[in-house]
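Example 3.2
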Amino acid sequence: ARLFGLAAKQGQAEAQCNLAVLCEHGRGVLQDDCEAAHRFGLAAKQRQAEAQFNLALLCEHGMGVPQDDGKTARLYRLAADQGLASAQFCCGMFHAHGMGVPQDDAEVARLYRLA
């Protein structure tokens, strides 16, 4: 955790994401969903797909951030557009159920094929 923290202070997105995972699960640091969301957010702003996906998961379930289907869908889309299969699947689910985005069966099929 200490080395990830040092790299994160230098603005390295992957280190921010890894430190966020440690915060989320309480591994080597105190468990803190708010801190995890903050760190995922820093990495997500640097277009780190895994951070965008993990922040979407927290946002979907209201863990450390308010639950928000629209924001969740946007984050899943950002990660999906970078080719992250799990984000493509989740983005498809949001389109299938009209959660934060219009229901769109063609987009659902496209995203599921990609995933």
